[in-house]
Amino acid sequence: MKRTWYIFKEYYLVYTLGCLGLFLIYFFTNKNEDLDIYSAFIFWFLIWFILIFIGTLELLSHTYYRPWKINKILNSSPLVEFKRKGFVKDDENDLKGSIRGYNLFIGVLWENHEKQPSYFSQIIFNPFSNERFLRQDEYDTFEESLSEENKTFTLNSLVILNKTYKGFKKTKYESILKDIFEAIDFLKARKLEPISFKDWEDIIPKLEKHQERFYN
Q: For residue 192, how many C-alpha atoms fall within 13 Å in the half-sphere facing its CB?
């Protein structure tokens, strides 16, 4: 039942409400004897049917086409080069592996509202490297010291995001590797140590509680 409601809300609710709104506007702005309710209803139903068809195409695209496309991207250059270097598939969207002692994820982000996918590398580190979590002023300093717009510093990782689909397809493996090397050097310079995937995931609940203090 929850799954059905989610699908309806995500792909059909807006279209249905929009068509209903158009019908009500037409009904209340045409209060006269010549108003043909039957024709108006047929017209509204046809519009609703077309929009529901569009919603269904979106649903099929997100359910079947995008997972297939993402899997194809992961098995194509340049990302397939990481698989050849020992990276393994983590879930439907990314690979995971290790470079210069640091664990990282690399893969594809494709939100429902986005027409094209984005590509990311996420180098993870121990958020408790100095026997404590980072203070907000330290976090702000590290984030501001990143000169590239496509790099984001978080409390437990450094993320490199490429939103240009066509540009990424032409990107070479060596270029991605260079960005990752620079990110690792950035972490090493700030004494942010490597961490295993399991320990990184285990510490996330504590880190989220710590992060809440930043906004209180």
A: 26
